[in-house]
Design a protein that fits this description.
Layout: E1 2-3, E2 9-10, E3 15-20, E4 36-42, H1 51-61, E5 70-75, H2 81-100, H3 113-132
Antiparallel strand pairs: 1-2, 3-4, 4-5
Helix pairs in contact: 1-2
Length: 140
Amino acid sequence: MIQVSKSIAIDENEIEEHFIRSPGPGGQKVNKTESAVQLRFDAGKSPALSATVFLRLKPLAGRRMTRHGVIVITANRFRTQEQNRRDAMDRLIALIREAATVPKHRRSTRPSRAAKQRRLDGKRRQGAIKKGRSKVGRFD
């Protein structure tokens, strides 16, 4: 079991790992080894995630989530397979943790009358300063 938060624990059998060839520099060895990791997690069918967490996870995952609710994370930042596995798993856990936190409810507020007055006074003061910069006329 992978502990994501106090209430969410993902079974290791729900996560699929495929190893693919990593792009980028590395010489001849890069053409022979499969060091990049493609991690797949079916968030839509996972019993560990509630419906609300899944709905918050959808926009956070963005293009990484398929139409069917499968999150695909590709990690090829490092040269070794083990480091890339750890990186992909950490990114998945961070994504689910962020979706698990309930967003703070925003209360709409209005500016006070005094704040409105201060803003208007400042605009008038700035307008007077700019008016004073204009060219002096002949009869002024």
